[in-house]
Design a protein that fits this description.
Elements lengths: L3 H8 L8 H18 L3 H18 L3 H24 L16 E17 L5 E14 L2 E4 L3 E6 L10 E10 L12 H6 L5 E5 L5 E6 L3 H20 L5 H12 L7 H9 L10 H17 L4 H18 L4 H18 L6 H15 L7 H26 L10 H35 L1 E3 L1 H29 L5 H23 L4 E3 L5 H17 L5 H20 L7 E5 L5 E7 L5 E8 L3 H13 L5 E7 L4 H4 L2 H5 L3 E7 L8 H13 L4 E3 L5 E2 L6 E6 L15 E6 L2 E5 L5 H8 L8 E3 L11 H7 L3 E4 L6 H5 L8 E4 H4 L2 E5 L5 E5 L12
Helix pairs in contact: 2-4, 2-12, 3-4, 6-7, 7-16, 8-16, 9-10, 9-11, 9-15, 10-11, 11-12, 13-14, 14-15, 14-17, 15-16, 17-18
Length: 823
Amino acid sequence: MSLAWQEDAALTPLTLRSPAAPVVCAAVAGIVMDRVFDAPPTVWWALLAFAVLAGLGAVRSPAMSGLVVLAGCGGLFGLWHHAWWSEPPAGDVFHVATDAGLPVVLRGRVVQPSWQHAMAGGEPETLAIVECVALLQGEQSTPVAGTVRLQILRTIHPLRAGAVIRVIGRLQRPSVAANPDGFDYRNWLRMRGVTALLRADSADAVVVEADQPTVWNRLQNSRHELRESAVAALQQTRHPETAAIGEALLLGSRSRLPDEIREAFAESGVLHVLAISGVNVAVIWLGLIHACRAFGMSLTASSWAVIGGLAGYAWLTDANPPIVRAATFAIVLQAAELSGRQVGLLQGLSLAALAVLALNPTDLFNPGAQLSFLSVAILAMVNRSFAISRDDHDGTIAELESPLRRLGRTLATVFWRANVTTGAVWLATAPLVAWRFHLVSLVGLGLNVLLGPWVLLLLWTGYLWLVAFLIYPAAAGGILMIFEVLLQGLLWIAEVASAWSYGHWYLPGPPGWWVAGFYGLLIIGLLTGAIWSRVRQAEAMLLWINLGLGWSLLPTGPQPLVCEVIAVGHGLAVVIHCPNGRTVGYDVGCLAGGGYAAAAVCDSVWRTGSRRMDALLVSHADADHCNGIAPLTERLRVGTLFAHRTILAGEPAITMQSLEAWSDAGGPIALVSAGDRIEVDPEVTISVWQPAAGVRYSRDNANSLIVQVEYAGRKILLTGDLERDGLAALLQRPRSPVDVLVAPHHGSRAANPPELAAWTNPAVTIASSADRQAKARLLQSYTEPTVVFNTAESGCVRCEIRAEGTLNVEAFRETQSPMGNRP
């Protein structure tokens, strides 16, 4: 079976016709226009109707006919995207669900076999995708539509695709992003066709009424059983973490991968190794070809076997966008060889893109899909340059060169080309990775070249084990041991590379307009080929890079003071951006996990173009106020941490972990007390009100560090978890009205009595809470004209004070009009 022409096709993508390329461009245009303008479906139907009528003979010009076809393709994919992304129709359960969760009895049909997941506390939960049939109330049954994600808490309850179930649970709308740049769970599920959540408290709340699997459901169940049996075998290894890595590497699932391992692979620049894509397909492809040769199969039979094997592997691995891209491209090449034709790279990639968008048009905005296609395009451009260089120097090598010298020259050439190729892909993908993930991994630039042989050996061993396990499990144990050793080596390399402090950086991403321009120039270079020389393209890229750097250096006008109360659920994280560009934090923590709070705070810092937390004030040592300090130090450069000495009497584990992490990151630690001032910006006064130096109350919350921030005559009071003795001491001070009060203890009733409301008389009160009832409680104490916000409902609350003293308060989920100067 010839592979030489396939290499030539990949190296010369523009020498062959690529009729699918303009079709992809039209499809992308339709999807983007629907996402940006949210056009009604009648627009897309009209465009399709016009294309059909024109195709029936109304247009006779070939050029116009081509434009009509492209318009029809754009309309078709715009309509397809609209069906995925538009607001759910009237009969969808999304309109029945509430944000807090509505108790319901729902009948539905399982459309994907259930899978297990570990909850935040380590307890198991069962997840499944269910197509809704009806809502039940007594003897009444109300038909409903839509797809929900079923979550059965604290239990393992297997459900097969095709099962008809009755669930007693709470129907809830998925949460939207609470902070700018935050994770939007509702949109994430929306991209997967899911509109609501259904939470059941136990397995008894889910009853299987019937089992009615279709042929497709039976195939899904068989696939699930195959995957689970392989995962169970992997979990018998001595190291549980290698089982999770092996599952990601071979089967494409990262659901069991611990966050710390995922982070190590990302920071070391080798996370793509765990994403099934082109390398995996190439290994499978070559393995199938050699197997067909070993069995003496004909060319036709071999081609069909390879096509079937690649399609089956894509199906087994859940057909994520990178695997669909790689498998489709390989199948296209194999089908072309079967028919005696050639397919260029651009045509193959275009057909692969059409396959990805046909399965799910929202994958156009999927970072994994974007990086997958981008990497292949860059590889093509580099290989084309190598091919041209090879053609220019074919006759320069001496024919009498010794074999040893020829081997050395070949190895040097391979190593050189591997470095150039890896460097080109790294440079091309770095802006997108920095923009989407705020991460640049320099160590990955060289590590990926060195890991190439290791990863290939790892994949060959893994797939050999997988085949042996499926055919004769008893003979697979020895191969699994070798596979586990190789996985342990890969994990060790990733962890060592991640631990190197200069190997990666977290930083503000480039602006979106610059990223769009950068990739626009790359696309032009790919499509124009020889028309636009490499020198001209390099000049254009350098000019664009310099423009971006120059833009970041442009002077900005006077900046306001901005105080953001970040939405972190039950916890507290406040970020203050001073007019001189410095950043001050007040607490970083939440019960959902310190990493979540740290990520939200980092996003706030990065949005200003900064990479530094110049000062951090810690109110007290409760986990929901300081468990984000350690992960914060891994992503930002740090200044001074300020706390009262009573922090040493808090939770010992949290306190020591936080203080040690800050100190290890190079940040000094200072103890402050009532009367101290913190100098960060000469125009901003940050005063510590309490506790006094020698005071220590019996309860840790009462010892909360109380801080006032004053700028342009406006005052912001930060109160931590102030209550009881500490609250009584505060109310003994002379009355001091403030403009913005961050409510004590997440808006609890005991910590926010009417006396505190009268003493502070705030224009704005903000509760950092996960409880949607916190605002109602606060309104009992903070009456009009005080405006009350609750981050559980409003998301991040942004307070802006300008130099002239105007105060503007906005919530991320709801906009508050400027409040102007307060009398």
